[in-house]
Design goal:
The complex is a heterodimer of chains A (227) and B (245).
Chain A: H1 2-8, H2 15-20, H3 22-56, H4 58-73, H5 76-87, H6 91-115, H7 119-127, H8 132-163, H9 174-184, H10 187-215, H11 217-226
Helix pairs in contact in A: 3-4, 3-6, 3-8, 3-9, 3-10, 4-6, 5-6, 6-8, 7-8, 8-10, 9-10
Chain B: H1 2-12, H2 23-55, H3 59-71, H4 74-83, H5 92-115, H6 119-127, H7 132-165, H8 175-183, H9 187-215, H10 218-221, H11 224-239
Helix pairs in contact in B: 1-9, 2-5, 2-7, 3-5, 4-5, 5-7, 6-7, 7-9, 7-11, 8-9
The chains are: A mainly alpha (227), B mainly alpha (245).
Organism (chain A): Streptomyces yatensis
Protein name (chain A): ABC transmembrane type-1 domain-containing protein
Keywords (chain A): Membrane, Transmembrane, Transmembrane helix, Transport
Chain lengths: 227, 245
């Protein structure tokens, strides 16, 4: 009975809301997850060649770093609004905006990671007859992984939270519920969606951390050795 | 790009700049919110960060606060504060949200800057008999200045961006031009507003970059050439992911 009343008395925490609107919450969460995944994946696909280009030619690195930093400065509401005439009201607006934001951190971290690869490792691989591609994917990339993963974690967490702003054009995942709850002053909806959003960010961060440890067993071993 | 031309026409129309919904009034609100909140956040975060950095403790705290700040959606906090009892108190929900979001970069950068101040110099100063306060004022703060300024810059840009979001729940500021455009389904106005907001964010970033260079206390002491060669890494450090939000 108390559960039914909390919808009427507009409580912050309401079990009845979660029960009756479970479907809506699941849909919003799934939308949030796929928008985030798509944005981070595309961001990674764009950032990687950019970072390689910037590393290869110094003339490219200045403009690339400068431009991505400038993009990062643009407020999210403005970014989504500016992309609106290009794509119309569609999910592409939100994903493109999020990809543009992710580039700043990803490009920098990939470059930092590659720069941190010891020259001896490179020389040894070259001596063993590794070509440039094999050197990149077989030696440099694995050694750059810790820095790359650190950037990926930051990007993912901030993408999860920025996705909510997509609610302005109706593609904000859990942000849609927050927006709706704001308009109707429905506290339980706002709090539930906000908590889910933060939980999503934390879960994503932990998953990526686990992935990182899985992919770099040598780092874990050496850390154990030193402590 | 018909929309771009129309957005330009919107911007060029004098009527859109005057009055309580006009650009000038919204810009004033935006700047007032930005500087008030930035000042409050600095007053709260900087002394704590400098003290912690001086003692050399609390690094994990600073980093954790910074990371947590990244995970919490700005928009959610704004709406949550608005629906809380605070919501009946005018601008306070917006101000509190803005201050909360400005604190992590300030805290982290100032802590790292003071903590990482060249240990040899700090030891030498201590050997000369400087007290803790003198050490902070004369050695650690000047050395940490570039990083602290970067934190302030990041916080300022973030406040400008967040103040934009304040328009979604009906707060003041330039974001209102965008949200009003959405309500009227007037895309040129949305684009014009977005251009204004983006331009303001870039101008604020630029102003703080210049301020950081002009006010750097080490600029006068070290040779110009040395200062020039040191500056790039100091300036890029903040852009490195560990310190930005």
């Amino acid at each position: 009975m108390a559960d039914g009343n909390c919808l009427i008395s507009n409580e912050w925490i309401c079990g009845e809301y979660v029960r009756t609107r479970g479907q809506e919450l699941t849909d919003a969460t799934l939308e949030h997850v796929w928008i985030t995944l798509a944005s981070v994946a595309i961001g990674l696909l764009v950032a990687f060649p950019l970072a390689l280009l910037a590393r290869r030619w110094r003339a490219v690195s200045g403009p690339v770093l400068g431009l991505t930093t400038i993009l990062y400065t643009v407020p999210s509401l403005a970014m989504f609004s500016l992309l609106l005439p290009v794509f119309g009201v569609s999910v592409a607006v939100v994903i493109t905006g999020l990809v543009l934001y992710s580039l700043t951190i990803l490009v920098r971290n990939i470059m930092a990671g590659l720069a941190s690869v010891p020259e001896e490792a490179r020389e040894a691989a070259r001596g063993m007859g590794y070509g440039p591609l094999r050197l990149l994917f077989g030696v440099e990339l694995p050694l750059a992984l810790p820095a790359l993963m650190a950037g990926l974690r930051i990007t993912t967490v901030s993408t999860v939270s920025l996705t909510t702003v997509g609610a302005i054009i109706g593609y904000g995942g859990l942000g849609n519920l927050i927006y709706e709850g704001m308009r109707s002053f429905f506290k339980a909806e706002v709090l539930t969606a906000s908590v889910l959003c933060v939980a999503l960010a934390v879960v994503a961060d932990l998953l990526l951390l686990a992935l990182q440890r899985l992919l770099t067993p040598w780092a874990r071993k050496s850390r154990k050795g030193t402590t | 790009m018909d929309v771009v031309a129309k957005a330009w026409t919107w911007l060029a129309t004098g009527a859109h700049w005057a009055g309580p919904d006009g650009v000038w009034h919204r810009l004033g609100q935006h700047l007032f919110l930005t500087f008030a909140c930035l000042a409050i956040a600095c007053a709260v975060a900087l002394p704590i960060a400098v003290a912690l950095g001086h003692i050399g403790k609390g690094g994990a705290l600073a980093v954790n606060i910074s990371n947590a700040g990244r995970a919490v959606p700005t928009f959610a906090v704004l709406v949550l504060l608005l629906l809380s009892p605070l919501g009946t108190h005018g601008q306070w929900p917006t101000i509190i949200a803005l201050v909360l979001f400005a604190i992590p970069p300030l805290l982290t950068n100032a802590y790292v800057g003071v903590h990482e101040a060249d240990q040899e110099v700090v030891e030498a100063a201590r050997g000369m008999g400087m007290t803790g306060g003198q050490l902070i004022r004369r050695v650690e703060l000047p050395l940490a200045f570039p990083l602290i300024m970067t934190g302030v810059r990041t916080a300022a840009v973030q406040v400008v961006a967040t103040a934009t979001l304040a328009a979604l729940p009906g707060g003041g500021g330039l974001g209102r031009i965008i949200t009003a455009g959405f309500r009227l389904t007037d895309t040129p106005q949305v684009v014009a507003g977005a251009v204004l907001v983006a331009a303001l964010a870039l101008v604020v970033e630029g102003v703080f970059v210049v301020l950081g260079l002009l006010l750097d206390p080490m600029r006068r002491r070290t040779g110009r050439r040395l200062a020039a060669s040191r500056r790039p890494p100091a300036d890029q450090a903040p852009a490195s992911p560990a310190l930005t939000t």
